[in-house]
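Troubleshooting: if your tokenizer reports a length mismatch, compare your output against this known-good record of 139 residues.
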Amino acid sequence: NDYGKNAVTIATRKGRGFRVRAKNDIRKAIGRSVPEFNPLFEAVVVEKNHSPELKKRFGEVSREASFGLLEISFDEMFEVREAQVEVPDYAPIEESAVCDECGEIFMSSRGLTKNGRVACHACMNIRHAFLDGYGIHCH
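Known-good structure output:
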């Protein structure tokens, strides 16, 4: 479920599992470890300032912050709780087909046959839901 949260739930097929979420003050912990990270994150990621020098410095500081995270205890960064979730059915397994347009293999239910030729939805310009940083979208 895409709720826009920094959390993940890992569960068995029976729905029993754990929900792990980043604590609300995780950026403070990173800032204590690497003070330059948060201001650069704001500039490059949030404000989308893509000057080459700034992006280069952000890359360097991000690597430093990544290794710095290894020094912060798991309990300081994350909250873990048991969870019971509804697990969706397994994905259907269907026959594969080869697109006569692009030559790629695709799930046969995601294609069309027209004038004796088989084409995948991508080559037919049929759009499906997609996920980006703002959620799941349908055309």
